[in-house]
Design brief:
With 99 residues, the protein is of the alpha/beta class. Helix content is 14%, strand content 35%.
Length: 99
């Protein structure tokens, strides 16, 4: 019984939310991944890698009303969050799409 309990606890510890990307709630580190986005080269809220296959989320670029998960408006000022494009160790991966 103790072994089973230990295995279950280890499993839960491995897969608990650590503030990273959560597809179900469309958040990463507690921030919603929709709305106004600014691309920066230093000190981003999220490091993002653009991929062609098996992304964590699909992003649709909008010009207004980005009110659904993965709908982003790229801005230069007053963003909801910032991203930095990286090639390694991203917080999550994206694929640009026209959905």
């Amino acid at each position: 019984m103790k072994l089973l309990l230990s295995v279950v606890l280890m499993f839960l510890m491995l897969f608990q939310s650590d503030g990273k990307f959560d597809k179900k709630s469309c958040t990463c580190k507690g921030k919603k991944l929709q709305g106004k986005v600014k691309v920066v080269t230093a000190f981003p809220d999220f490091k993002v890698k653009v991929v062609d296959a098996f992304p964590d989320m699909e992003v649709k670029v909008r010009s207004s009303f980005a009110d659904k998960c993965g709908e982003w408006i790229f801005v230069d000022a007053f963003p909801d969050f910032t991203i930095q494009y990286v090639n390694a160790f991203p917080d999550f991966t994206i694929k640009m799409t026209s959905r």
